[in-house]
Amino acid sequence: MGTIRTERTGEVLVVTIDRPDSRNALTADALAVLRDRLADASAPVVAVRGAGSAFCAGADLATVDALDGDDARSFSRLGQAVADALAGYDGATVAAIDGPARGGGVELALACDLRVCTPRSTFAESGVTLGLFGAWGGTDRLVGTVGRSVAMDLSLSGRVVDAEEALRVGLVSRIVDDPLAVAHAVADNDAGAVRTIKGLLAEPADGDRQFEREREAFAALVEARAKRKD
Questions:
Q1: Where are the transmembrane segments (predicted)?
Q2: Same domain, 46 and 108
Q3: Residue 20 is part of which domain span?
Q4: What does DSSP say about strands 122-124 and 161-162: parallel, antiparallel, or unpaired?
């Protein structure tokens, strides 16, 4: 069974995928634990990282090879639930990437609000090289993040890109020496403002409706700020 460790440090909940011998590949059990830990989380910021020298190798291949069709659907659904939990978390989520991210590991990172990596990090949608593909929401989120052309390139070739290329195409937002420091910097901001901004940017409405949402959200934050000063 894969191990998921959590540690609250200040306003940041650090979630560590702790299977370094398998480059933090995720079994069904590990995904279920990760889903439940995210459901129980209440910290303003959640940072996801991998133990050892990798971020996450994606789905555990021994698990995948033992699946039948119905099991495969359930496994995909479970991975999608984890990614959705990250994307829909009531607070900011940061993928703190240090080392290789492959397949499902890229998909989990895509579900986070911020993706920051170290210079030694690499990325690949490597499922195609195994006769598979990422089925944890990646076909939607990858296009939304890097655009259809780049998404096609990465997904159809399975090629590995380094941190600099990942930054250039928008797969990550920053290259840093300490990804967790970014999570703590976000947590230093007002939690209510972070939640509000995330909601407005993650699910924008059309046209005038978005402007109305901005006005109402801004007014609510101004009122909250005034109450804190009283």
A1: none
A2: yes
A3: 4-185
A4: antiparallel
Domain identity same for 13 and 76? yes
Which tokens go with 117?
Answer: 């990596």
- Asked if pLDDT for residue 2 goes beyond 90, the answer is no
Number of domains comprising the chain: 2
- Tell me, yes or no, whether 169 and 146 share the same domain: yes
What band does 1 get if pLDDT is binned at 50, 70 and 90? very low
CA-closest candidate to residue 93, choices 163, 34, 24: 34
Q: How far is CA 83 from CA 71, 108, 113, 221, in A?
A: 18, 6, 11, 29
Structure tokens at 162: 């380094």
Question: Is the domain of 139 the same as that of 153?
Answer: yes
**How many of the other CB atoms lie within 10 Å of CB of 10?**
12
Q: Output the six-digit token pair for 195.
A: 């939640």
Same domain, 60 and 81: yes
pTM comes to 0.94
Kindly write down the DSSP assignment for every residue of 97-147, as one continuous string. E-SEEETHHHHHHHHSSEEEE-TT-EEE-GGGGGT----SSHHHHHHHHH-
Q: How far apart are CA 25 and CA 149, in angstroms?
A: 28
Q: Do residues 158 and 197 both lie within one domain?
A: no
Q: Which residue has the tokens 């009531």?
A: 90
Name the nearest CA neighbour of 35 among 73, 4, 60: 4
- The reply to whether 199 and 85 lie within a common domain is no
